[in-house]
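Bug #2210: token dump truncated for NACHT domain-containing protein?
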Amino acid sequence: MKEHNSRLEKEGDLQFQGVSAKTEIPPVHPAISEIIFYAKDKAPADEEYDPDDNKELYSNKIITQVQFQDLLKLKSKFISIIGRAGSGKTVLSKKLTKAFSSSHRVCIHIKFMDMNNKQPLTLRELFLDNMIPGQDEKVYENIFNWLKKNDEKLILVLDGFDQAEYTLDKNCPKIKYDKCVPEKQLIHNLFIKQLFPNSLLVVTSRPHAVLYLPEPARPQVTYALGDLSLEDTKKLFLAFADEDLWRKINATSSQMLSMCRNPLMLQMIISTNTDPSEDIGDASTPTRLFATVMKNLTYSHNFQFSETMDELARKLQVLAFAATKHGKVVLTAKELRDEGVDPTTIHDIMVQLHCHRRPINSRLFEGNTKFYFCHQTFQEHLTASYVVYGMPVEKFQEFLETSLFQEHWTVVRRFVCGLLFDLESKAVSGDLQIKKKILKKHLIQQLAIISEKLMKQHEKRMKDSQLFAFQDDEALTDKLLDLYACVGEGKDSSIATKAAEHFPTTIKLQQPMNSNLVPGLCFVMKHVTKQLDWLSMFSCLLDANSFHEIASVIKEMKPGQIGEMEIYYNNLQPSNIDDVIGLLRVVRDELWMGDCFIGDDGKRRAANQDERSKIQSALNKLQTRLVVHVDFDTRLRSQKRIGMNETNSKKC
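Reproduced locally. Full output below:
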């Protein structure tokens, strides 16, 4: 066991390309949820294209949230841990191995990519030859006999079942320990607990591989991995980069921090910002980030392409667009070869998997070996690149009118805007300039249409005295914020100015607010000069960073430019009190706070006495009629209050 664990230690938990750890890797864990996994003939979620990559896996199937320590107390005999590419399955499996080993149990950790044996073998050969190679035959025999007699102390952690090159059959014969059979029969007998029946079996995988296991071979419990918390993200980030880079990203492109919650994306962002390509500049938007990553792959030590990156990228763009258009993320080797791409040379960009059996009425894929982009956002960026650089102008015009502004193309649309609007300052001629004008026209039209619909719905509510009926607004607000994200991705001030002209005078932001949408909202709000009647951030669950970003823009507005504002039910930290104070000169009538801070106990609280004193002191320096509702019973006013005839509050 010492030799086995020593080998795991040497492999390392995280192997970042282009960056190495500066300090010891801290104990960080992604969010872990016990979920209801098996549903009748449901298509695998990670084989279908989902335009919102920030949604939680199976969020509507969560039974309960669990902690890492809870996994060490499991009573089930067979569990699976699933998650998207780069979510931390392998890291978690190694941490489980180390934790179980320290509890005086025998824990064997093996990757499926290290197995896939072509010749028949015994269970002893599968495990012990893999676990501790080069031992005497007598040693193997003694160890294996002990494991059979003491299997209640045995934990088998099998990592990456999606990389197995076989499918488990429904009618697989039961076997004995010394039987020499194909590897898939050994695995099947482990799954049905025919072998080592009292052991704990932990299998990690992308979801598609375990979704169609035959019923007797299914895990008893399934856990889904989500993202790292912001706190754990920062810990992991600082293990590989310095705090200056964290502060820089936080200040210039905070949406990158939410992308860093996926360990794979954290790797890319650190590598890109540490040694960016000279002709890309700062990677302050997702569009710039992925353009830089694609450039940096040229310098990868794994670079094995027989052509230039530009030539390969053009082929991948065609493949990505076709996959996105047809709603899939999995490609066959034939599809790659038909486009002139050698599947054996693109492992930096695409990941290989092996097809598992599916029900007859499920979508089928040809062949055994499949490929998917190492992160869905790569597919989306390459798809957008095809739209911008590969699609003829006539087709581009048609695509904008019929498809681009549909929900299916949400993320692709942002990248298209980023690529076209964020072109270098030098003059751009030809088709790109034509496409830029066409896109600008359509985007501004969409902004005007959505904003007008929002304002008409608000006027109707006021007329019908339905002050709190915001359900009809939610879909429109989501569309508007997505369009603002497009504007922010392009960093074109002329478009932001036009967007600001159509900014609704009354708006209630998302509940909760997606942090990736905050930069776009702020970029547009910087250009808003009109008077706003009401801005609600009620129950947006904004964290300290997102609120600071929004407040920093608002405090630069004209005095009294916003009539009324709501910020209660958010996740602010004590440091945000300065942001709240910055709002006081801009809000004219009422500022509703309520339970907007997070206390030391993790529960929401109203402003405490010290924070109230700071607000009151700041108010006393202003000549304003503003009323600050710090909770439902306490109101603060300026000692230099003007306009003493108070209007009746419209809110409670």
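Output looks complete on our side. The two ends are 64 Å apart (CA to CA). Marking as cannot-reproduce; reopen if the truncation happens again.
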